[in-house]
Design goal:
The protein is α/β, with parallel strands linked by helices. The chain is built from 15 helices and nine strands. The chain has helices spanning 13-24, 36-44, 53-59, 70-78, 83-86, 101-112, 127-131, 143-148, 150-156, 168-196, 201-209, 216-227, 237-254, 259-273, 284-292; strands at residues 5-9, 28-32, 48-49, 62-65, 92-95, 117-120, 123-124, 136-139, 159-162. Helix 11 packs antiparallel against helix 12 (216-227) and helix 13 (237-254) packs antiparallel against helix 14. The longest helix has 29 residues, at 168-196. It is globular. The protein starts with a strand and ends in an 8-residue tail after the last helix.
């Protein structure tokens, strides 16, 4: 059991799961979110809430950020009540969001000026996987600082890797999410093909998951595709658009073709156009069902 104090800024799907597992592992967790009800949920779970990023940094020597976009990170770091304003010498920030490397670099430069250390540590895994500690940390930056964070990583993830200089973690996360994007669509395509051939989705899942054709995305998102119900999202379609844009820009800047990823991206765009913005990304299965002219038999 741990007795270390950890700050968490951003208590959405991922942040709430990470904070919950750290609390279970014996850490004291101090958190903040722009939505007060999320901070309240943390407090109900045994954590302690604060009213600003600055207040979190003043109370915790190590802070995790899990944020939705560039604007949120900029506000958390450089806002009037941000981390820079705390000016805490020796603060270690674990930036775990999936964001462009340039904005993480800007955050690192700003915080280094007040004596803080920033690590780029994106997480591989869905919100559902985060609940069960089935996450992998792609840590990058100062290696000695990463090593000091190992016990924290162990509190919410099943594995952590030191990937190299700052930004290496994000580069690997972009590669991982390219695969997630493609594998999720591939799983949906397989379900639709099988269902249109007259095979029950439960049978498709059970049989394919046990053989060579399976993937982690088939196993994680497959149960949603079996049910044909996507309201309980662990990664929302609209949030995924941000990741798609980041990977697209990353590949374009390198002059690297990504034809399968580009094809998969069209299915997520179609899901968005169909009004599925807040549904789980497994909803691409419903998109493909529509394209195939397939209608599921009503469940009795």
């Amino acid at each position: 059991m741990q007795e270390q104090t950890i700050g968490i800024i951003g208590l959405g799907i991922m942040g709430s799961a990470v904070s919950g597992n750290l609390l279970k592992d014996g850490f004291e967790v101090i958190g903040y979110d722009v939505l007060p009800e999320r901070t309240g949920a943390l407090e109900a779970n045994g954590g302690r809430g604060r009213t600003s990023p600055r207040a979190v940094a003043e109370a915790a020597p190590m802070v995790i950020t899990l944020l939705p976009d560039v604007a949120a990170l900029e506000q958390v770091v450089a806002g009037e009540q941000g981390l820079v304003a705390a000016a805490r010498e020796g603060l270690v920030l674990l930036e775990c969001s999936t964001l462009p490397i340039a904005c993480k670099e800007a955050a690192r430069r700003a915080l280094e000026q007040v004596g803080a250390v920033v690590l780029d540590c994106p997480l591989s895994g869905t919100g559902a996987q985060a609940v069960t500690k089935d996450l992998v940390v792609y840590a990058s930056g100062d290696e000695s600082a990463v090593e000091r964070c190992r016990s924290v990583f162990d509190g919410f993830a099943r594995a952590s890797h030191y990937t190299g200089p700052f930004g290496s973690g994000s580069r690997l996360k972009f590669v991982a999410n390219l695969l997630v994007s493609i594998h999720n669509v591939a799983a949906a395509e397989a379900f639709v093909l099988g269902m249109k051939a007259g095979i029950a989705p439960e049978v498709i899942y059970e049989v394919i998951a046990s053989g060579a054709g399976t993937s982690r995305m088939f196993e994680v998102r497959g149960p949603l595709m079996v049910q044909g119900s996507y309201e309980q999202a662990t990664m929302k379609v609209d949030v995924w658009q941000k990741d798609i844009a980041i990977i697209t820009d990353f590949a374009r800047a390198l002059g690297c073709p990504t034809p399968l990823f580009a094809a998969a991206a069209q299915l997520y765009a179609a899901a968005l156009a169909q009004g599925r913005a807040k549904e789980d990304t497994a909803a691409v299965c419903a998109v493909l069902e529509d394209m195939a002219g397939f209608e599921r038999p009503k469940r009795s």
